[in-house]
Amino acid sequence: MSPLRFILFLSLLGTGLKAPAQDYLVTNRTDTLRGEIKLLTFGQMDQVQISIDKKKKVYKPMQVKSIFLDGEFYRPLTYDNSIRFMKVLKAGYLSYYAFRLPNQTIYDGRYLVKMDGQGVETPNLGFKKVITNFLEDCPEVTAKVKADELKRSDIEKIIDEYNACIEKKTEISHHANIAQQTGDVKLDAIKKLQAKVEAQEELNGKKDITDLLADISDKITRQQTIPNYQLEALKGLLKDNEPTKEELEKVIALLSGN
């Protein structure tokens, strides 16, 4: 045998000796158990059997977080007053699963589940009505379904567009919350500065200062930019005013660059 053929032979032999990825399950205690796995159906509740070193143990779905079997992931989900191990087809805020219909062995049922636990079977009949009701929190997606731009055959695209919609909404909400929290901090600082100003009966330009602070507070509430000239005016009006020095510095620091 030539050296080249010998190398090819060893390469093929090595490929043939590679062991397949071992199946495993993850328990609710986050323990990972590797072994031979079988999915079992008993009435209204699926179970999973795992064999490790010839010792068999059966787990109920409430004890299992996920299963990896034959290159596929499965999760326990509630469906039609039962708990079934469903195959993950697409994961996200809105996930897509395959499941076995009653008295069947193949996974030809389809199920949509939101991260908050809401789920619906994807029907052949009445698909448009069911999906638009289920995904009503993203009108831009349901509008395409109603207009037949997206149909049942486009289910994965529907899922992608819905998840993108939710991600965008979540990001906007997150930024709004941050803006609200930041605004509260700024308003609190201005309130403390205003109290120091009000406490000084003979402060020069007191009325101008309080009017200026009131206008700045209104702009913060409306999430508007504070003009730099207003900050400069505030610093000028309270220049060398020792009682307000600390509060003024904090307000300027919070509002500079907005």
Task: Walk me through the structure.
With 258 residues, this protein is an alpha+beta fold. It has a domain at 170-255. Helices cover 43% and strands 25% of the residues. The protein is built from seven helices and eleven strands. It has an eight-stranded antiparallel beta sheet with strand order 2-1-6-7-8-9-10-11, with helices on one face. It has a three-stranded antiparallel beta sheet with strand order 3-4-5, with no helix packed on it. Strand 8 (82-90) and strand 9 (94-99) form a beta hairpin. The protein is elongated and about 90 Å long.
Give, in order, the helices and strands: HEEEEEEEEEEEHHHHHH
Strand content: 25-35%
Number of strand segments: 11
Number of helices: 7
Keywords:
258 residues; alpha+beta; 11 strands; elongated; three-stranded antiparallel sheet
Kindly summarize this structure in a few lines.
With about 260 residues, the chain is of the alpha+beta class. It is about 45% helix and about 25% strand.
Helices and strands, with pairings:
Blueprint: H1 3-17, E1 24-27, E2 32-34, E3 36-42, E4 45-52, E5 55-59, E6 64-69, E7 72-79, E8 82-90, E9 94-99, E10 109-114, E11 119-121, H2 127-134, H3 139-146, H4 155-198, H5 206-221, H6 228-237, H7 245-255
Antiparallel strand pairs: 1-2, 1-6, 3-4, 4-5, 6-7, 7-8, 8-9, 9-10, 10-11
Helix pairs in contact: 2-3, 4-5, 4-7
